[in-house]
Design a protein that fits this description.
Elements (H helix, E strand, L loop, with lengths): L2 H7 L3 E6 L4 H12 L4 E7 L4 E6 L3 H11 L2 E2 L8 H5 L3 H11 L1 H19 L11 H28 L4 H14 L3 H34 L6 E5 L5 E5 L1
Antiparallel strand pairs: 1-3, 1-4, 2-3, 5-6
Helix pairs in contact: 2-3, 6-7, 7-8, 7-9, 8-9
């Protein structure tokens, strides 16, 4: 391959990533992609959901590693119009955002079940040494915390990073072992709520950028001076 061909093959490429919900996700992806053969440099932006990578690494290898980490390459989709962006705001927009994310939707359902259990289960006799409320809390931690533990474990295996997700999973597991089931379910649900608020804030910022880009005209008239001294209009 010629020198110019090598330079073209190693030129920086920009890819769009879907599935990031916090700034730590960007660091995890960077560390993991950097370990792939052929990667010279990589930078991931959580705000714009983009990755700029240079080197001879194939896009298929990048996509495979992203799937191993729990993310994916996003296809180019048309920008939403202003009315769609407005729907993402307020309490209704926040609840809609939660429902559109499978892990957050699961946490929302778990929280509803826990609240219902707090109303009907207190006072019932223990089962196998634990109250029904303790069993409910333990099950809620397992169901709601499974995505958190899986995410932290993937970051450890593929990016060699100990993330807050893994630490939170270990903390909840320790709380279950010592019988602090109520504390465990409170911690995991509050953690996922914090993650949801961070992801929602970032999505709002992206919506603002998209709304600004939507204002740009599709056509423009450019005036250029010619040798005859007159300005001529050109449509673009």
């Amino acid at each position: 391959m010629s020198e110019s061909g090598k330079q073209q093959a190693n030129a920086p490429r920009q890819l769009k990533i879907a599935g990031m919900d916090c700034g730590s996700c960007a660091l995890t992806i960077e560390n993991s992609i950097r370990q792939l053969p052929g990667v010279e440099d990589v930078r991931v932006s959580f705000t714009t959901e983009t990755m700029e990578v240079s080197g001879s690494v194939a896009v298929a290898d990048i996509e495979r590693r992203l799937k191993e980490l729990g993310y994916r390459l996003a296809s180019d989709e048309p920008a939403p119009d202003a009315s769609e962006l407005i729907e993402h705001r307020g309490l209704r927009g926040f609840l809609r955002f939660l429902w559109e994310q499978p892990p957050l939707r699961r946490a929302l359902l778990v929280a509803a079940v826990v609240l219902a259990g707090l109303l009907v289960l207190p006072g019932l006799p223990p089962v196998a040494g634990l109250t029904p409320l303790d069993w409910l809390f333990a099950a809620a931690v397992v169901v709601a915390g499974a995505p958190v533990f899986a995410k932290g474990l993937r970051a450890l295996l593929y990016a060699r990073r100990i993330t807050i997700d893994l630490l939170m999973a270990v903390a909840c597991a320790g709380a279950l072992v010592i019988g602090a089931t109520g504390e465990a379910v409170t911690v995991i649900l509050l953690f996922m709520l914090g993650e949801a608020l961070e992801a929602y804030s970032a999505e709002r910022a992206r919506d603002s950028l998209r709304s600004l880009l939507a204002l740009q005209p599709q056509e423009a008239t450019v005036l250029r001076a010619h040798t005859d001294g007159h300005d001529h209009a050109h449509e673009h």
